[in-house]
Design a protein that fits this description.
five-stranded mixed beta sheet, homodimer
Chain lengths: ~525, ~525
């Protein structure tokens, strides 16, 4: 498949007539051909109409058929071969090994949801049989299953051009649920997006599904995305990106005639808590791991450790010294886009401008479009007094907050907004302290880690990639792992239905062999 | 226990100093002693502080202990005895048999959630064990459970003074989840509310729980409710009431620094579709059942059948005639409050004022505070052209829409907003038509019924009392049945945790014996 610069509207490749998007070489800033045409509102309307008309056909396909569809997409992405990786390297500045890993993760996610579909638990099939003899009133036959919520708008993320983008977790879980998907591609990697979009469109063809199951739109601005979220045919939104972007979509969705759920994964500084005994016994080792986690992928992860909390004293200063020393060896790294690089530099400048913030060390300087990692420190009192210090700096920057005692540390934790992750480093003797912190940690974050860092998000059944606002817009949900499918389902009950009209998952003979809960108890 | 007119703030009965609420005898409009004191914002603050401080203690109680608490509340409500029923009859105008039934339902709901707690599935415990040998990277140990979301504000409903009020489904499911609850009592039945509130507060005492687990506030206006939803310590809201009230709370919750979920069950006209063969063969029988469902409890149910859709012709006219005739025998009924009665009368007058609406029949006229049931008819074209005809008239009024053919009937269905229920009456020969309607029905309502009416909402595992907006604010949820607990839970993941720090539900030795999903598969 070759990159054409065209929109994918169902099965048609359509030249976009609404302005031009240019892919930039992340390392040099040079434009990469071809130019991508932006979608008009007419293109958007066609994509929505196709998705709407595909919905009723697609949502009732057998789960095993949708599983096959997801697996076909996975194979089609692999079949794109090295040209996908090469294009993606140029558009994002990310190294080959990372992108090959991310491709594996993307394919793995599609296959995970195929397994979720074959398992059938996601349908939450429930049967409360009739009790004609019940007194004073007989009980009617009542059955419940979850059905697809409707066409979903997905926004590609800049920092995961494959795993959180066109065929990323949002798309995979929405398609698995039975929802058609319209992706608004991230303008930072349009070529990567088009190739992956072609792989999905090919999967729709391969599996003989209605064409409206998938469309891909480009836009140089915000109009297409905002209009998509406002469109009455769209019933849910998946988004990974900035807090301002996510909140804007939440507001549009809430103001609709029919408000719809927005699943926005936005802002997190992922605090790392270093407890006293861990610091005294292994400050240097933790510092080395910390710097590795901080600078991985130029720090461009939602789970990047942007804040370190510890009680001040010689062990913390030893940690700071070791971290600064390790950081000095870290080469500068190309960031995803010139814009992200600029934001990072502004954030660093903002921290450096605070008289209350000490610069502990930096990584190596590099080319103009490369970013230099940085480590800062401040006091708990200053951190509590200056809200600007709590803002996320997207990239390889972190701020150590020196707390006078554990009470102050807890106080700092309590004032934080919601987080995707909180990591705690603790030795055996820190367990009592950790136990005392745990209730606060649970209320502040979606995932708690011991002796590690939040980077490295496993795609499994027990993953929670979410958290209280503003980490995500909906703390009841995750955007990674098998639970992500629940975002795109809604329950429907069927009362006193004729057996021949019941959905297959609710039939007594259970043709799909899904788990059924009879009167609240799983049947076997 | 006696009615004091005081607020229940944790374990303290406190005289409210912010104005006065008077209970009115629904039948006569006469004031019933005592006067209830409205809560000040200071009272509200104390209740929130108590709830906030109780949260960490309460949410980690063992599920079986919370089950015992719910069962204790159930017994305490029963122990209130006949004075509860008598007070409730006076405040609501509802008959004894209905209120005794509703008390049974309320107690049954509390016991259902006790069973849900003992079952443990609600925790959704998941364990993805470590795979130290996995390549290229070892897999960490990752576990997930759902925890309580935080203190919950519950708004009592006017039309179910027991089952959707102080100890109703919202309170029962929130307490089951591990959330402290602050109830804003409905001003139409303050004495009933206080008695039930005392039964819960007594349960808190009996079970030696922290007092902040429950508080009950009165307010003559909207300030307390709105301030409660805006309070940073409140993390979710349960509401049953008007569309304008629910939307106001949704807007407050969305505008908070930390937006929170609002579960508002609001507006539904519960269409009834009469298919041709059903009409030809049993118009009269359906009409009798319809009039019974329409006029039950003066039509004051969320699931009251406010709209009838059918293809016009002799069988429909026969249904209309039979329904009008049956209606003529229905006595006038006292409504819940003079305000509701006034709204009902305005709604009826509004319909009568439309030249396009024909009055088919009415029930018997009654006292000034009683309402007369009414049945209207219009054409599909007029219905589609006049949005005013689609507005809910809360009470025993219904509108028949005569459709020229099945295409027009489907068109009317498609233009409707979201509904709690849609009922279809179908004979064997209507099955093909029904199958063709089904996709639209599934998209428009939370519960579909064959050959019945939406009134009579079973409290079980397969019940869905919810639906697309504006039936509810969140179509993914139900306010009745065991799934209602999910509204007040959020998942949290624990990575690489020490066994002694893991929550009991996630420990390998599984001390609570809850269902655990290991690598996605339920362990047995």
């Amino acid at each position: 498949m070759s990159i054409t610069g065209q929109l994918q509207i169902g099965q048609s490749q359509v030249p976009g007539k609404n302005g031009e998007i240019l892919a930039l070489d992340a390392a040099t800033g040079a434009a990469l051909p071809p130019a991508f045409g932006g979608a008009t509102l007419g293109d958007l309307d066609v994509a929505c109409a196709l998705a709407d008309s595909a919905f009723d056909l697609y949502r009732v396909t057998r789960p095993q058929d949708r599983a096959h569809f997801l697996e076909t997409i996975a194979l089609n992405i692999l079949a794109l071969g090295d040209p996908l990786i090469e294009r993606c390297m140029r558009e994002t500045g990310l190294p080959r090994s990372r992108l090959e890993g991310e491709r594996g993760r993307t394919v793995g996610q599609l296959r995970l949801f195929a397994a979720v579909l074959r398992d059938g638990t996601f349908l939450d099939a429930r049967i409360d049989p009739a009790q004609p003899e019940r007194t004073p009133l007989p009980r009617v036959d009542l059955r419940l299953q979850r059905i697809a919520i409707g066409p979903v708008a997905v926004f590609g993320a800049s920092n995961f051009p494959l795993a959180f983008s066109v065929a990323g977790g949002d798309t995979a879980s929405a398609l698995a649920a039975g929802c058609p998907v319209i992706v608004k591609a991230h303008s930072a990697h349009p070529g990567t997006s088009e190739l992956v979009g072609q792989a999905i469109a090919q999967g729709v063809r391969d599996c003989k599904l209605p064409e409206g199951v998938f469309s891909l739109l480009f836009d140089s601005g915000r109009t297409v995305g905002q209009t998509l979220v406002a469109d009455r045919r769209i019933k849910a939104v998946g988004f990974t990106g900035s807090r301002s972007g996510g909140v804007a979509l939440m507001n549009i969705a809430a103001a609709r005639e029919e408000p719809i759920p927005v699943y926005a994964e936005m802002s997190s500084i992922n605090p790392v808590v270093l407890l006293p005994h861990a610091l005294s016994t292994r400050a240097e080792a933790i510092a080395a791991d910390f710097v590795a986690a901080l600078t991985l992928g130029a720090g461009q992860f939602c789970t990047n450790p942007g804040l370190v909390l510890a009680v001040d004293g010689a062990p913390l200063r030893e940690f700071e010294r070791a971290a600064a020393q390790a950081l000095a060896d870290v080469p500068a790294a190309t960031m995803l886009t010139p814009g992200i690089n600029q934001s990072y530099r502004s954030g660093i400048a903002r921290l450096k401008a605070q008289s209350t913030v000490e610069t502990l060390g930096t990584g190596q300087a590099g080319e103009p479009l490369q970013a230099q990692a940085a480590l800062f420190a401040t006091s708990a009192a200053d951190f509590l007094g200056q809200p600007v210090l709590r803002e996320e700096v997207f990239g390889a920057a972190s701020l150590i907050v020196r707390c006078p005692d554990e009470t102050a540390l807890l106080k700092v934790l309590e004032t934080l907004e919601g987080q995707l992750t909180i990591a705690v480093h603790a030795a055996a003797q820190d367990r009592f302290t950790l136990g005392a912190l745990l209730p606060t940690l649970e209320k502040k974050a979606g995932r708690l880690l011991l002796d590690g860092f939040g980077t490295g998000v496993e795609v499994g059944h027990a993953m929670l990639h979410g958290g209280p606002f503003p980490a995500t817009s909906d703390t009841r949900t995750t955007s990674v792992g098998s639970l992500a499918i629940e975002r795109f389902l809604r329950p429907v009950a069927y009362q006193n239905f004729l057996p021949e009209l019941l959905p297959p998952a609710l039939a007594d003979h259970n043709p799909w062999a899904v788990p059924q809960r009879i009167d609240g108890t799983l049947a076997r």
